[in-house]
Amino acid sequence: MNNPIIMIGAGEMGGVFARGLLKSGKPIYPVTRNMDMEQVAREIPEPEAVLVTVAEKDIDDVLGRIPAAWRDRLILLQNELLPRDWQKHEIRNVTVISVWFEKKPAQDYKVLISSPVFGPHAELVKTALTALNIPCHIVESCEALAFELVLKNVYILTTNIAGLECGGTVSELWRDHEKFTRKIAGDVMDIQDWLMNTKMDREALIKGMLKAFDGDPDHKCMGRSAPARLARALETADEAGLAVHKLREIASQA
Predict the structure, then answer these.
(1) Which fold has domain 150-253?
(2) Phi-psi domain of 91 (left: phi exceeds 0; alpha: psi -120 through 50; beta: other)
(3) What is the rounded CA–CA span in Å between residue 29 and residue 40?
(4) How many whole angstroms separate alpha carbon 93 and alpha carbon 87?
(5) What is the mean pLDDT of each run of 10 residues along the chain (254 residues)?
(6) Would you give the DSSP letter of residue 218?
């Protein structure tokens, strides 16, 4: 029997990946909150991969506790994820997917666009998602992955923060409030540039965001995490000394 795939976390998104992995013939060993990861690592020191499906608010704590035997086998899929988030834990050789489908309770997954993935287990991820007819493609470099992660951040933060003021769908947001949306996206990209310590191609990011808008025009802008996303963005802006006038204006009206 093949070595199992460890799955840390068992939420909505984890359930989708578990289905795909099982359908593609991969055994899974779940690790839940009340289990000791170190003990599991002693029992299974060489899993095929370790899929981390916890929420973004929990990822830093989990990465800080990953057993040494698993550190070069990780697959990450969280939103608001950037290379610095795993590099600060001295984790290398990681596989990361920028997830462009959503999964809500009592609903099946809904695809926006194809999800890019990069890393040593990229083919494993693509095979699992393909088994569920979820489009996924492999990108060819760390730089390409970094762009994809920033793009997802721009999409999520721009739409969620804009939704705090405008509500509505992403198609309505761009149709009726393009200038406003560009200002928010500009503030978000200022933050992303600081986090990445480089200047990203802003027109390419806007183009990618609009492609995602077209993938699901009726997608609601404001999710339940929107206030927390704005608060985190402003914390980062304060640390970086960034003006982000439009984000601050929205926060002052909340």
Answers:
(1) N-(1-d-carboxylethyl)-l-norvaline Dehydrogenase; domain 2 (1.10.1040)
(2) beta
(3) 9
(4) 10
(5) 87 92 95 92 96 93 95 96 96 96 84 97 98 97 97 97 94 96 98 97 98 96 90 97 97 86
(6) T
Integer CA distances (angstroms), 172 to 2, 19, 86, 167, 177, in order: 49, 34, 36, 9, 8
Overall pTM > 0.90: yes
- Domain locations in the chain as residue ranges: 5-140, 150-253
What CATH number was assigned to the domain covering residues 5-140? Answer: 3.40.50.720
CA nearest to 250, candidates 155, 158, 153: 158
Residue 165 vs residues 29, 175, 222, 224: alpha-carbon distances, Å: 43, 15, 9, 14
User: Are 161 and 155 contacting, i.e. CB atoms less than 8 angstroms apart?
Assistant: no
